[in-house]
Design goal:
It contains 5 helices and 2 strands, in the order αββαααα. By secondary structure, the protein is mainly alpha-helical.
Amino acid sequence: MRLLRFVGHVNPSNWRSRIPRHSYIFSFRRLPSKWAGVWASFFKGESALAMEELILNLVENTGARRRPSKVQEHLDELKRFWRHEV
C-alpha cells in the first residue's frame, strides 16, 4: 500500500466505525484499470507481473524517484512477501 500511494490517489476512508479493530481498508483511485486482475494473480501466486508493472510506474513517478532508498526497501519487502508468503 505504501508504494501504491506513488501511483494512485488514496481515497479517504470513512469505514473505520464499520470494520473490526486492528483491521485496515485501503482504497485507491486512478490506478490502471488492468491492475485489479494483475494484483489478484500476484496474490494467488500465479504471476509476478504486478511487481514489474509497479516498478515501471514508480520509475516514472517523481515522488518515488526522490525517495529511492525507501522505495527500494518497500520493493524488497514485497519481493520477500512474494517468495515466502504467497
